[in-house]
Amino acid sequence: MTTTTTTSHTTSASGATAHEHAPRLALAELLPDFYRAMVRLETAAAKDVDPTLYHLIKLRASQVNRCAFCIDMHAKDALAEGETIERIVQLSAWEESRHFYTERELAALALTEAVTVLTDGFVPDEVYARAAAHFDETELARVIAAITTINAWNRIGVTTRMTPGHYTPRSA
């Protein structure tokens, strides 16, 4: 993460876009040990999780948390790895667009939202039971780890105002 301010503008039919904001601080540079630990956590969380499912989890949690940087990153990564634009676009309304996703993905998305929002202070039993019906215990633990990790990244991205739009996905 860098603290450089970009002043480039793109134009649309209606004119120039708004100015791009600069990040608040460069957490990776200020706390490199913490950042490296987060990367190791991400690597551990991603291990043996279906990449398609992992992208959906990361993208949906990022949408819920309104982390524009992470939405940009995970949408680009998902597309680079073969995800369809249609499924990415419909993800913000996945409950109304259920037919785009498998039952297993739907269970993971419901769990992602329950863990991310925690509006009732807990994950509802029915949401957990539905996920447990689609994943064995080890898989479920991996899904929970993936949800937890992206939520931590989202909090970093939102708090430090990481700027979306400049991420380039790694090659698939």
Automatic annotation (TrEMBL):
Annotated signal sequence range: none
Domain Carboxymuconolactone decarboxylase-like, chain residue ranges per copy: 32-113
InterPro entries assigned to the protein according to its UniProt record, in alphabetical order: AhpD-like, AhpD_core, CMD-like
A Pfam family this chain is assigned to: CMD
Sequence segments annotated as region (Disordered): 1-20
Superkingdom of origin organism: Bacteria
Comp. bias (Low complexity): 1-17
Protein name: Carboxymuconolactone decarboxylase family protein
Source organism (scientific name): Streptomyces wedmorensis
